[in-house]
Amino acid sequence: MDKDNTVQWEFFCTHGMNSGKWGVIDVPSNWELQGFGSYLYGNVNTNVDEKGLYKFQFEIPSEWEKKKVNIVFDGSMTDTEVKINGKPAGPVHRGAFYRFKYDISSLLNYGGSNTLEVTVSKESADESVNRAERISDYWVFGGIFRPVYLEALPLKYIDRVAIDAKADGSFYMDVFVKGNGKGRQVTAQVETLDGRPFGKTLKSEVSRDTSGRVVLRGVFEKPELWNPEFPKMYQVEVRLMSGKKVIHSITQKFGFRTVDVRQGDGIYVNGKKIMFRGVCRHTFWPSSGRTSSRQLAIEDISLMKDMNMNAVRMSHYPPDQFFLDVCDSLGMFVLDELAGWQKYYDTPIAKKHIKQMVERDVNHPCIILWDNGNEGGFNPDVRGDYALYDPQKRTVIEPWSIINGTNTKHYPKFSYVQNALENGKEIFFPTEFLHGLNDGGHGAGLQEQWEYMMSKPLSAGAFLWVFADEGIERRDRNDSIDTEGNRGPDGIVGPYHEKEGSFYTVKEIWSPVHFNEIELKNDFKGSFEVSNRFLYSNLNTCKFTYELSRYIFPDGISGDVSGDIDSPDIKPGETGTLSVILPDDWRNYDVLYITASDQYGRNINTWSWNISSADTVASRIVIPVTDKAKVTEKDNILSVKSGKTELSFNRKTGNLTGVKNGGMGVSFNAENPFAGFKRKFRTIRHRSVDDGYRIEIRYDSASYTNWTLMGDGWIRLDYGYSLNGSYDFTGITFSYPDELVTGAKLLCEGPYRVWKNRLKGTVFGLYDKKYNNTVTGQSWDYPEFKGYYSGFYAAKIETLEQAITIVSATDKLFLHLLTPASATNLNGVSSGMSPAFPAGNISILSGISPIGTKFSRPEQEGRQGEKNRFSGPFRGTVYFRFGDY
After folding, report:
1. Angle, alpha carbons 368-371-377 (nearest 5°)
2. Predicted confidence (pLDDT) at residue 626 exceeds the cutoff of 90
3. Closest by alpha carbon to 712, among 692, 696, 694, 695?
4. Rounded CA gap, 387 and 394, in Å?
């Protein structure tokens, strides 16, 4: 049935790994992931002369002899020839992603053993199938990769139904009866999912013509409607009757809901204008390729719901049936897609596959649009075929084009988004957006564009590319993960669903609970202005809680208090007040957290607001003891020692050249202390001051660094500069050997790193992080250790020498904690995928660099992606200490 429930069949592969001999294989599977054949990433005209030969023995009950027996394949890549007991079951099926079946009633040995033989050709004999399915932007495989099973039916039977159940309670159903027999009437009873009847039984006579189509109509009072927030489902039991005898019955799930694409306006579901918070998804798992499972479908949708998504696009082919079942039951809008990437099926086979796809998927309420291929892989001659099998007449779109009142441009730059929403006439929703690669795209660039989209009536949202990294376990490379460089889709989660930083950025930006910006000042009364961005849910269906915490760095939390918050009555699309009743001593805490959960208990998001300033927290951490300093000068080196700590400076350059603690050297220095700009050294002076011994270094343009040894190992650095212009980053920077760092305790917004255009998704707290050298999208030890951290208050960097503690007394600074290793998969991609970092690798910054997408530089995706603009002076204070204390 799926990757977790397989049956072993005999198997012979003609070429590649383990070929030329009979063995066994799990069915369903892709044979490459079972160690057979060869690996191929699509979009290449490569002839793969590779076939898989399957054999399986099965028994048929003798009582089935008076039934119609079908063998059903839900998906087989790519051409499939089936024989039963040495005889063909029917014509070869060409095309991988569609259910097909053969009537094998006359070929079976009832009450005895039967031999099934299947030959699957990896390359199709139909060139248009190869163009549409295999010369594509994804891993291509071979094998029976979806469920395969037998179906026993009476001689006259219900073949399928097609339902249109609208939000006003009107119900229409086509029932298709096939075969010969006595059944003359069809009845239908709508029920709740627990089997309770809903409304009256519907009845109709079976037509005596050859169509076998029976139409049933009814009206149901006040049905509960299906939508992604309240995915209410019903079922209908359909019976084929001969008098009072039931000849055959089936039960079909469905939902009452109406989809209305209003040209020049928007997409409405149940009369509500919707915004897609969507993502594109391939069916994929590293160890099983295109073979999935119901559990994996549940995990995928749960992760999407955890990111506050409400829509998923089936790129670039229709999914497994159970994935759509889960979208129905958990609640996700779906764009269901015919296979085709820049090439399309010839008309005869396109017509066949549309029929197969729509007949299988028509009753899923989650599907609200049909996609006629992708990115130019559109056969215009078959656009009208979807309606032949869909009584709902859902709109057909062609992702990346303008058709039927929709504009789904792929990877639009922000200027295009603005023009489409200001001057266009079509409903705009890019069906591939902010192309992710490594740590770029996805959440980077999303905030500004999303807020703009929310403000424009022609916007219907967007679909991020893509959900998950597609790296396969290479059986020929000790199961190492292969993403085919930067060609394999790079997602918001890793191959095994490891969460990247963008996961939490998307989660916050797409949160249906939206807090307007606020700082908690002393006169704060506990009121937050909150907008409800749900489509259908009042915020009074959600649960809100708060927590106050006070941190003792670097050890942990010294105390916290929590409580419930009354849920506000705020309707969808409206803004109101969330009132938090805080204890009288709330100002004694460092941070306020608020968590929102939806009506099902799923976490919507947790937000944090700082109460204590960086200076207040620093005053608790930094408690110096006055100590007399010893000063020496030799060979242009100025050395100042206070207690166990000694700093050395080059008198000709002003550079910090050496640090010692307890007589042991620490490899911490600063060749040029300023990051993002250069200043010319002028003078260095030193003198005793009230709180210690100070080294005053002056540069041109009113820039300076003042180092004060305060005693007990604490060192205060006061620095300043004046700027006017655009900069990648600004601040002060130091150098320390990467290979000596083992971890860090960080009091900041985390646990993930940030970029200038991806600041959302972090929460202030104390994070204990172990060193890693992760290159996002190429290795998957998350959260990454190296990079930029926002809301920086304090860090204790663990090393093989001595610990390095840095404490900020200035608000809104960033910590640059080592520079990430360079990616090795950047051939042919945007220069924005290599963001700028300071020359040093430990920096305290007031501005940081953005990151781009695979196809765009960061500034092309909005102002947040532009360089930092500074005008005027900046002053900052940080403290250092070397060694444990």
Report:
1. 175
2. no
3. 692
4. 7
Spatial separation of the C-alpha atoms in residues 721 and 700, rounded to whole Å:
9
Tell me, what's the pLDDT at 124?
Answer: 95
Give the DSSP H/E element, type plus range, for residue 350: helix 347-361
- Asked if residues 827 and 633 have their Cβ atoms less than 8 Å apart, the reply is no
Say which residue the tokens 């700590």 belong to.
645
Helices 446-454 and 414-423, packing angle to 10 deg: 0
Mean pLDDT of 398-419: 98
User: For residue 16, which of 41, 42, 39 has the smallest C-alpha distance?
Assistant: 39
Structure confidence at residue 487 (pLDDT): 94
User: What is the rounded CA–CA span in Å between residue 482 and residue 498?
Assistant: 16
DSSP assignment, residue 64? G
Residue 210's pLDDT is 66
Q: Alpha-carbon torsion 532, 537, 539, 545, what sign?
A: negative
Q: By the 8 A CB rule, do 143 and 53 touch?
A: no
Contact of 643 with 713, CB cutoff 8 Å? yes
- The one-letter amino acid code at 20 reads G
| Neighbour count for residue 644 (Cβ, 10 Å) | 15
Q: Residue 873: pLDDT above 70?
A: yes
Say how far apart CA 446 and CA 111 lie, in whole Å.
62
The pTM (predicted TM-score) of the whole model is 0.98
Pairing of strands 513-515, 7-13: unpaired
CB 637 within 8 A of CB 818: no
DSSP 755: B
> Under the phi-then-psi rule, with left for phi > 0, alpha for psi from -120 to 50, and beta for the rest, what region is 615?
alpha
CA-nearest of 591, 739, 589, 730 to 673 is 730
What is the mean pLDDT of the segment spanning 729-751? 98
**661/647 Cα distance (integer angstroms):** 9
Q: Give me the sign of the Cα torsion angle 819, 825, 827, 833.
A: negative
Whether 867 shows a pLDDT value over 80: the answer reads yes
Q: Which residues contact 404 (CB under 8 A, 6 or more apart)?
A: 261, 395, 396, 397
The secondary structure element, H or E, covering residue 875 is strand 868-882
Residue 627 confidence (pLDDT): 86
**Which tokens sit at 810?**
């200035």
Which amino acid would we find at residue 842? Answer: I
Q: Which two tokens stand for residue 688?
A: 């005793």
Residue found under tokens 């010692």 = 660
State percent of the chain over pLDDT 70. 99
Q: Where are the beta strands (DSSP E) in 566-713?
A: 575-579, 591-597, 603-610, 629-634, 637-642, 645-650, 656-661, 664-666, 674-675, 681-689, 692-699, 703-711
DSSP result, 46-58:
-----EEEEEEEE
Residue 483 CA to residue 44 CA, distance in Å, equals: 16
What does the pLDDT average to over 307-313? 98
Structure-token pair, residue 838: 């300071």
Nearest to 138 by CA among 312, 316, 17, 2: 316
Reading the block at residue 760, the tokens are 């959302």
For residue 43, give the nearest of 655, 638, 489, 450 by alpha carbon. Answer: 489
> Among positive and negative, which fits the CA dihedral 436, 442, 445, 451?
positive
Residues ≥6 apart with Cβ < 8 Å to 146: 28, 73, 74, 75, 76, 291, 320
Measured CA to CA in angstroms, residue 113 lies from 9, 59, 107, 109, 667 at distances of 15, 5, 12, 7, 76
- Round to whole Å and give the CA distance between 619 and 597: 36
